[in-house]
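Task 17 of the worksheet. Students: predict the tertiary structure of the chain below and write it out as C-alpha coordinates. Keep your answer in the requested format; marks are given for formatting as well as content.
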Amino acid sequence: MLEEQAFDPELHDRADFSCGVPALDEYFHRFAAQHGRKGVSTVFVLVDSASPRLVLGYYTLSAAQVDVTQLSEADRKKLPRFPVPCFRMGRLACWADRHGQGLGKLLIACAVDRCLHARRQIAAFALIVDAKDDDAQAFYRHYGFTPCADAPLTLYLPLASDR
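Model answer:
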Protein backbone atom coordinates (compact mmCIF):
# COMPACT_ATOMS: atom_id res chain seq x y z
CA MET A 1 0.00 0.00 0.00
CA LEU A 2 1.32 3.46 -0.88
CA GLU A 3 1.61 6.00 1.90
CA GLU A 4 2.93 9.49 2.41
CA GLN A 5 5.41 10.04 5.23
CA ALA A 6 7.52 12.90 6.54
CA PHE A 7 11.03 12.40 5.19
CA ASP A 8 13.33 10.76 7.71
CA PRO A 9 16.96 10.61 6.54
CA GLU A 10 17.60 7.72 8.94
CA LEU A 11 14.79 5.64 7.46
CA HIS A 12 14.32 6.66 3.84
CA ASP A 13 17.01 5.74 1.29
CA ARG A 14 17.79 8.75 -0.83
CA ALA A 15 21.09 7.57 -2.34
CA ASP A 16 19.44 5.51 -5.09
CA PHE A 17 16.53 7.85 -5.84
CA SER A 18 16.45 8.91 -9.48
CA CYS A 19 13.64 10.81 -11.16
CA GLY A 20 15.57 11.65 -14.33
CA VAL A 21 15.90 15.38 -13.56
CA PRO A 22 19.41 16.01 -12.19
CA ALA A 23 18.44 19.11 -10.18
CA LEU A 24 15.59 17.27 -8.41
CA ASP A 25 17.78 14.21 -7.75
CA GLU A 26 20.61 16.37 -6.38
CA TYR A 27 18.23 18.26 -4.12
CA PHE A 28 16.92 15.04 -2.60
CA HIS A 29 20.37 13.46 -2.26
CA ARG A 30 22.22 16.49 -0.89
CA PHE A 31 19.88 19.13 0.51
CA ALA A 32 16.54 17.64 1.63
CA ALA A 33 17.65 16.73 5.15
CA GLN A 34 19.60 19.97 5.60
CA HIS A 35 16.69 22.15 4.45
CA GLY A 36 14.38 20.32 6.81
CA ARG A 37 16.69 20.90 9.79
CA LYS A 38 17.06 24.59 8.90
CA GLY A 39 13.33 25.18 8.43
CA VAL A 40 13.68 26.05 4.75
CA SER A 41 11.29 23.37 3.51
CA THR A 42 9.65 20.20 4.71
CA VAL A 43 10.00 17.09 2.58
CA PHE A 44 7.34 14.41 2.32
CA VAL A 45 7.96 11.07 0.63
CA LEU A 46 5.77 8.47 -0.97
CA VAL A 47 6.67 4.89 -0.08
CA ASP A 48 5.21 1.42 -0.38
CA SER A 49 4.50 0.22 3.16
CA ALA A 50 6.01 -3.18 2.19
CA SER A 51 9.35 -1.44 1.39
CA PRO A 52 9.36 1.78 3.44
CA ARG A 53 13.04 2.60 2.79
CA LEU A 54 12.48 2.90 -0.97
CA VAL A 55 11.29 6.40 -1.87
CA LEU A 56 8.96 6.37 -4.87
CA GLY A 57 8.52 10.14 -4.96
CA TYR A 58 8.74 13.28 -2.90
CA TYR A 59 7.52 16.84 -2.64
CA THR A 60 8.49 19.84 -0.54
CA LEU A 61 6.36 22.43 1.20
CA SER A 62 7.23 25.82 2.61
CA ALA A 63 5.58 29.11 3.44
CA ALA A 64 5.20 31.66 0.66
CA GLN A 65 3.25 34.65 -0.53
CA VAL A 66 2.07 35.88 -3.89
CA ASP A 67 1.39 39.42 -5.01
CA VAL A 68 -2.32 39.70 -5.67
CA THR A 69 -1.60 41.22 -9.11
CA GLN A 70 -0.26 37.83 -10.24
CA LEU A 71 -3.63 36.13 -9.76
CA SER A 72 -6.51 35.86 -12.19
CA GLU A 73 -8.99 38.72 -12.22
CA ALA A 74 -11.67 36.51 -10.67
CA ASP A 75 -9.39 35.63 -7.75
CA ARG A 76 -8.12 39.22 -7.33
CA LYS A 77 -11.65 40.55 -6.85
CA LYS A 78 -12.06 38.60 -3.62
CA LEU A 79 -8.72 39.47 -2.04
CA PRO A 80 -7.03 42.43 -0.34
CA ARG A 81 -4.64 44.49 -2.46
CA PHE A 82 -1.43 43.25 -0.83
CA PRO A 83 0.53 39.98 -1.04
CA VAL A 84 -1.50 37.01 0.16
CA PRO A 85 -0.12 34.08 2.15
CA CYS A 86 0.31 30.75 0.39
CA PHE A 87 2.03 27.41 0.62
CA ARG A 88 4.75 26.60 -1.92
CA MET A 89 5.39 23.15 -3.31
CA GLY A 90 8.95 23.89 -4.39
CA ARG A 91 9.76 20.44 -5.73
CA LEU A 92 7.90 17.34 -6.83
CA ALA A 93 9.59 14.25 -8.24
CA CYS A 94 8.75 10.59 -8.89
CA TRP A 95 11.06 7.62 -9.38
CA ALA A 96 11.89 7.49 -13.11
CA ASP A 97 10.76 3.86 -13.45
CA ARG A 98 7.32 4.85 -12.15
CA HIS A 99 6.57 7.77 -14.49
CA GLY A 100 3.09 7.54 -15.97
CA GLN A 101 1.67 5.49 -13.09
CA GLY A 102 -0.17 8.33 -11.35
CA LEU A 103 2.36 8.98 -8.59
CA GLY A 104 2.62 12.68 -9.48
CA LYS A 105 -1.15 13.04 -9.21
CA LEU A 106 -1.07 11.23 -5.87
CA LEU A 107 1.72 13.48 -4.57
CA ILE A 108 -0.23 16.61 -5.58
CA ALA A 109 -3.30 15.24 -3.80
CA CYS A 110 -1.23 14.57 -0.67
CA ALA A 111 0.22 18.10 -0.79
CA VAL A 112 -3.21 19.70 -1.24
CA ASP A 113 -4.65 17.61 1.59
CA ARG A 114 -1.77 18.58 3.88
CA CYS A 115 -2.23 22.27 2.99
CA LEU A 116 -5.97 22.11 3.62
CA HIS A 117 -5.34 20.65 7.06
CA ALA A 118 -2.69 23.27 7.87
CA ARG A 119 -5.02 25.99 6.59
CA ARG A 120 -7.31 25.30 9.54
CA GLN A 121 -4.65 26.85 11.80
CA ILE A 122 -2.54 29.02 9.48
CA ALA A 123 -4.12 31.19 6.81
CA ALA A 124 -3.09 30.52 3.21
CA PHE A 125 -4.94 31.32 0.01
CA ALA A 126 -3.33 28.90 -2.43
CA LEU A 127 -0.74 26.26 -3.15
CA ILE A 128 1.97 27.67 -5.44
CA VAL A 129 4.24 25.54 -7.63
CA ASP A 130 7.29 26.38 -9.68
CA ALA A 131 7.26 24.40 -12.92
CA LYS A 132 10.71 23.60 -14.29
CA ASP A 133 9.64 23.81 -17.93
CA ASP A 134 6.66 23.86 -20.29
CA ASP A 135 5.98 20.13 -19.84
CA ALA A 136 5.83 20.55 -16.07
CA GLN A 137 3.58 23.58 -16.52
CA ALA A 138 1.20 21.49 -18.66
CA PHE A 139 1.22 18.78 -15.96
CA TYR A 140 0.17 21.26 -13.26
CA ARG A 141 -2.39 22.95 -15.49
CA HIS A 142 -3.97 19.54 -16.08
CA TYR A 143 -4.65 19.40 -12.32
CA GLY A 144 -6.25 22.84 -12.15
CA PHE A 145 -3.30 25.13 -11.42
CA THR A 146 -3.41 28.60 -13.00
CA PRO A 147 -0.27 30.38 -14.25
CA CYS A 148 0.69 33.65 -12.55
CA ALA A 149 0.35 36.74 -14.74
CA ASP A 150 4.01 37.72 -15.04
CA ALA A 151 5.60 34.32 -14.39
CA PRO A 152 3.79 31.57 -16.33
CA LEU A 153 6.03 28.83 -14.89
CA THR A 154 4.78 29.76 -11.43
CA LEU A 155 1.26 28.45 -10.98
CA TYR A 156 -1.26 28.48 -8.16
CA LEU A 157 -4.21 26.43 -6.99
CA PRO A 158 -6.64 28.24 -4.67
CA LEU A 159 -7.38 26.26 -1.52
CA ALA A 160 -10.64 27.99 -0.59
CA SER A 161 -13.82 26.06 -1.10
CA ASP A 162 -15.84 29.26 -1.69
CA ARG A 163 -14.34 30.11 -5.11
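Marker's comment: The longest helix spans residues 22-38. Strands lie at 2-6, 42-48, 51-66, 84-89, 92-94, 126-130, 146-147, 154-158.
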